[in-house]
Specification:
This protein is an alpha+beta fold and 408 residues long. The protein has helices at 3-38, 47-78, 84-103, 108-112, 149-155, 240-246, 268-272, 306-312, 393-399, and strands at 121-123, 134-140, 143-148, 157-162, 165-172, 177-182, 184-185, 188-189, 192-198, 201-206, 212-214, 220-222, 236-239, 251-253, 291-297, 300-305, 314-319, 322-328, 335-339, 341-342, 345-346, 349-351, 358-360, 366-367, 373-375, 389-392, 404-405.
Amino acid sequence: MPETQEIQVVRSKTGYFLALASVFAAISAACVMIPMFVIRPFRPQGARELEIALTVRHAGPWLAGFCAGAVLLVMLRVWKTAKLGARVAIASLFMVAFAGAILTHVNIFEKMFHPYDSPSFESAAEAPIDSDDKVLAVRVGTEARAYPIRTMGYHHIVNDTVGGTPIAVTYCTLCHTGLVWSRIVEGKLLHFRLAGINNGNALLRDEQTNSIWQQSTGEAIFGPLKGQQLKLVHSDELSFALWKSEQRNGQVLKSDALYAAEYDPKDWEKHVARTPTVVDTTKSGIGPHELMLGIIVADQSKAYPIEAILRTKLIQDRVGDLPLLVVVGPDQASIRVFEGKLENEPLTFARGAADQGMSDVETGSIWNFQGCAVEGKLAGRCLVKIDSHKDYWFDWMNHHPQSAVFRG
């Protein structure tokens, strides 16, 4: 074969291999860029594009690894016969593919908000928490723990065990949702990590199955457990002073010294209320950052404006067939919800003076903020607690589009 013809053949093969390496490098880069582009704050995520992004991210580590290996083989194949320019090109493509293979193993959200893998606790008496700071309070059996929201807002998730029950304490500041979920699903003990964001609400990933869960609903939206529902563990959002007065022997989550400087400031709510939202609430006539207390009873949902609750102190209402009692605590900031009946007999409540709880009209008994009668004919009896949680309107409306709204 003439020399010029041989050179042309070599160049043709080199060009072919460069094109092939370019495809593999592009795929490896896409395994990083597609999830990063779709699953990011302050942009809307459609269900289909989110599913595609999660599929790419799930397959990314092995797919990008395969592509990096393929580019390496191509580089070894053409290196001896390629000219300097081709060598630089193929080496650059390998670096791109290799970087993609590495970055698919990196959870960017946990680089921004580091996990609290080994949570430690201190007594309520020793905890250096401001009295008016809010905590997410959990009590299982005789064990009570409080998780300061300014700490939780940074870490987002704390995997813990309280009263022998494995729980995931979760908080998403962008939508103002603090919820506690059981970590047992289909008999499996799950360990949760922060996985991203979906229309302003955090996504969780369990390490055991790599399923993706919506924080504000507890539903698996991707992976082997898709469609499964986490079991809610009752919690209250209380001021630290009020919780401490109720649980003097309780334990409080310590700050992680490595990241305490990055925790949310005391006025974090003002800052979050200025962030953009991606859910259009215009037709509802309610602002996206209107803070609500959300309640779900027998698949019926209702949202109560926090301002209305704090202003009126006590609301009696119904969700479906169930009478409800929404009441503000003696700190004038904490809120609890109870069934407005006792053994199927409805009760009518009236608010007492600032620190005197409330009384029922039927017997005149005095009730405290724990929902228990402390004086009168019904002393010692307690109302049934109802699960509720705070949520910005845009997030509540997004996940509960048929929700009723308390109008006063």
